[in-house]
Amino acid sequence: MLAASGTIASAATVATAPAALAAEGPAVTSPDGLLALAVSTDAGRLTYEVTRAGRSLVLPSALGLRLTDGTTLGSDVTVTGTSSRASDTTWRPVWGADPTVRDDFRELTVGFRQADGRTFNLVVRAYDDGVAFRYDVPAQPGLPSLQIVDEATEFALTGDPDAWWTPRSLAYDGDEQLWRSTAYSQMGSSMTPATFRYADGTHLSIHEADLVDYAGMTLVKEGQRLRAALTPTPGRAAAVVTSTGRATPWRSLTITGDAAGLVESHLLENLNPPCAICDQDTSWIQPTKYVGIWWALQHGAFTWETGPNHGATTARAKQYIDFAAAHGIGGLLAEGWNEGWEGSWADQDFVNATPDFDLAEVVAYGKSKGVEFIAHNETGASLDNYERQIDQAFALYESLGIHYLKTGYVGQIPGQYTYSQRSVNHYRTVLEKAAQHQINVNCHECIHATGEVRTYPNAISREAMRGQEYDAFSEGNSPEHTLILPFTRMLSGPMDYTPGIFDIFWDPRNAGRRVHTTVAKQLSYYVNYFSGVQMAADLPEHYEGRPGLEFIEDVPARWDQTDVLSAAVGDHLVTARRSGGEWYVGAMAGERAQTLRYPLSFLGRGDWVAESYTDAQATDYTTNPTALTIDRSVVTRKDTFVAALERSGGQAVRFRPATAADLAELPRYVEPELDVVSVAAPASAQEGDLVTITATVANAGSVPGGDVVTMSVKGGAVTQSRNVRVDGDGTRTVAFQARLTGRHSARVIVGDERVTVRIEHPSDAVPAPTGLRVTRFAGSLVALAWDMVPGASYQVFRRSADGIYEEPIAVLPAGATSYLDTGVSIGGTYSYVVRAVVEGRTSIPSNEVTQTTSAQQVQVTWRVRVPDFTPPGDTIYMPGSIPELGPWDPGKLAMTRVGPNLWEASLSLLEGTTVDYKYTRGSWAKVEDWGEIVGTNNRRVTVSYGTTGAQLVNDTSTDPATPDIHEAVRSWIDVRS
């Protein structure tokens, strides 16, 4: 077989002649001349700076390695020499976003000697899409090994660019946080990648590449600079202990002129060595789609451990395989197939299956249907236990013909962190051993990718981010979060977000959970998110008969070309990818509804069929996220296609060459264009009243169209705009509302249409309430008050999602001048007016007030009753999923005895926080174990502000009718009645 990752073309020779020193120090410039990285040794202090087109991006920033002997390589240096080279080659990935990758760079190596005689080199590269540098430390008598405490490496960005980052955390799930969007000056210490946008549109992302036998990098904010901070090893001074005669990982800065360039960049892959396994057969490395016994586990409908609700049974696996085979999906993941889920997950058996799961039978059944089995190894963060079994397990999988593996590392690794050197070496060992057994690896809860997919293309995907599973068991992922991922985490390598949820509101535990997208956005993920394994993550029964399933059937997992058509971090992304002779486009939006237009110039000549799946006119993120419009029309490369997107909405399109039958049956594409065709309003209104104006908007196009429609009142300050989406060849009525004033009339204008409303001034009008104000708010309530109108009762109105005051949300009796609205949610913006009613006549509205709700602190008290047979000298503890409880530390939060067999603990938590928890007597060997509260099944509560800001979680009931999650402890795993 052709060595698929080898160099296939060379366009430049390599030069290694010494470079002359410029007055400001040695420098290297990108092939296109735009980027430059200069090195300086002013007064012996080693620094670098970066410019683009002559404009400074990174101010002089320190370089160096801090060693355990108290010295710093790079602290007192002189230059011993320089050499430079240029390289322009092209390599062919085994699989990837593009068929070939150009590796074109200029490289500068600067040699240094310290005052203490030690030597090292700084290797610097400049590409058209970024710069990178690494330390090369040769073997030398004065430095027998490298024992690195930390790095002195800095990134001092100029100005105050926009920043997208996640807080630095050494916890196992440190990468699984919502992304934050702030100014650079306001960001804190961060994980990587971290991405920045300068005022001129230049984008820069800081990360690392070729991470081998080293500690993972994070970023510590020190003043207005970021420093490369290595993940430590607990109990050891050195974060890294390694040999000399090696180079450190690259410190990379991907730099592009716009956001699209970030996504299209191959910088991190290019900074890694060529394929290490391509001298062998690599035909087993194949991107694929898969289904899984997974989403129901995340929702608690099935269990990982054996029992009445065990998910991974032979029968259920076969059902999922049948579904996959029927819909052209190539793989089945079954979490919980193996023994060892009942405890802490750290002592699992990766060879032996549970009694109700026949591994060989399931694998064989899948192969008979063309469906590969994806093994799952959850280590429970026990690297030692996994490494003891890995050879035997991988040999078993190879013998059965299993080529796909999902690994997991839930929990804190004993004596290590997820990103420490020992852990980094473990993840590489797994990749290497998997390759020896022809296994592709999808790693979850492991360190961020660093472009190693070039070297080990069996690194088919990984998590290292807050994926869609969080929509099942937490407040979920924001619409903006999913639009930041492509410009941050996805830059480092393929990303398993587990898309394809169709039943957006499925919530079997009634825990207030939902997926924070429309269905159309779920479809767009298959194109916008790059991964070698793409999941159809929902339950088979949630797909049957649902529009949109055909796109999942059609969309490939393997691509031959990628073009980003439009992009803005956190706001929108439109990606076109080619597979063979077909093109696919994914378009998706963040927090705001918007309409995107993209030219089809990427298509070949001739006629093409566009099969589009788009947010429908009826789609509403809050109330109707599953509505989907499917259109088929004939297009050419001269057309401009339109994606009219709801908030957190999307569009997915398949473009295939048109057949003669298509041309005979399908209409030609007509670009959507919205037009206001009529406007209606009441003939008259009392001065100061809120008047509803309706406009009919038509779309003569062949697919859903969108535009901003504006209503204004001539001569007044009233202007309102709506983002309107209308189905192809359809109409839609849009409502506005304006407070009209004037002596005689008001002229209302919408588009090119207008209507006149007569203004009346009745002498006996009911006075409007005055002084409407917000007196208190939280994430779940808004308290209102107003001044009394004599003899009046009141109607309270809250503005709808469409921006209209419609029916009152409350009707209050005379004398009531306050109202508590508990029908709100965290992070919403709500507007209110109040009308007075006297003898059946209604006033004009009061003044308007607007309040954005935010989560408030709640004093939460847990009270639990334990059995009489609980050892009298033991203390009760409460481990759980939040930091205050460990997380999951069985001996961290001690409760207080408040009565016979009664214990309490209190915490101040933000409302909306979901807490999973259990009760123990100080260790997992003494955890409660009874009823439904066994194994990985936990108690759960969502923090609620209520009306007072205090909440009692009462786990004291002994009534069997009480749900187990709030019943008293009935038994301990080590002590039973």
Automatic annotation (TrEMBL):
PROSITE patterns attached to this UniProt entry: CBM20 (PS51166), FN3 (PS50853)
Signal peptide limits: 1-22
Name of a matching Pfam family: GH97_C
Catalytic activity: Endohydrolysis of (1->4)-alpha-D-glucosidic linkages in polysaccharides containing three or more (1->4)-alpha-linked D-glucose units
Iron among keywords: no
Sorted UniProt keywords: Carbohydrate metabolism, Glycosidase, Hydrolase, Polysaccharide degradation, Signal
Protein EC: 3.2.1.1
CDD domains referenced in this protein's UniProt entry, alphabetically: FN3 (cd00063)
CBM20 domain ranges (all copies): 852-960
InterPro entries documented for this protein: Aldolase_TIM, Carb-bd-like_fold, CBM20, FN3_dom, FN3_sf, GH, GH-type_carb-bd, GH97_C
Every Fibronectin type-III domain range: 768-856
Family matches, as Gene3D superfamilies: 2.70.98.10, Aldolase class I, Immunoglobulins
Stated name of the protein: alpha-amylase
Taxonomic placement: Bacteria, Bacillati, Actinomycetota, Actinomycetes, Motilibacterales
